[in-house]
Design goal:
By secondary structure, the chain is α/β, with parallel strands linked by helices. It contains five helices and eight strands; from the N terminus they run αββββαββαβαβα. It is 34% helix and 29% strand. A six-stranded mixed beta sheet has the order 1-2-3-5-7-8, with helices on both faces. The protein has a two-stranded parallel sheet with strand order 4-6.
Length: 136
């Protein structure tokens, strides 16, 4: 379970899906996907449905707290880019150097405003700032 002052002091909803754990509020979602999962556009459907219900067409942020090792099918990147044009801030919390290298590779495929962090609170701060700057 995610533990962070930012999360503990904010109104978040928790949902466990087949791919892992999701925490979300009105502005963004934090995902902790399960160890060994191979994310692709098809098996992301449950998360897609929840995103569409929660955020509709409003701008939102997505934080991948990569405490586990999993893969993303990069051949599906364009489908994700097209399906989620309202992702305005995508943060990855890399807990080790390998995850940072994976993030660098993924950068070439995804068109989201993306940034990597080592700390979940820093990722949350960046996402909140990026989303608040849209309203100015």
């Amino acid at each position: 379970m995610i533990s962070s002052l930012k999360i503990d002091n904010t109104d978040f909803t928790f949902k466990e899906v087949s791919l892992g754990k999701l925490f979300y509020n009105e502005k963004y979602m934090i995902a902790e996907f399960n160890e060994g999962v191979d994310l692709n556009f098809k098996n992301f459907n449950e998360v897609t449905t929840l995103i569409k219900l929660q955020f509709r067409d409003r701008p939102f942020g997505f934080i991948s707290n990569r405490i586990n090792s999993y893969s993303i099918n990069l051949s599906d990147a364009n489908k994700f880019n097209q399906k989620f044009p309202n992702v305005k801030a995508y943060a990855v919390v890399a807990h080790n150097p390998i995850t940072e290298k994976v993030f660098e590779i993924e950068e070439r495929f995804f068109k989201f405003n993306r940034r990597s962090f080592r700390d979940l609170n820093d990722a949350i701060d960046w996402v909140e700032k990026a989303l608040s700057s849209l309203n100015k």
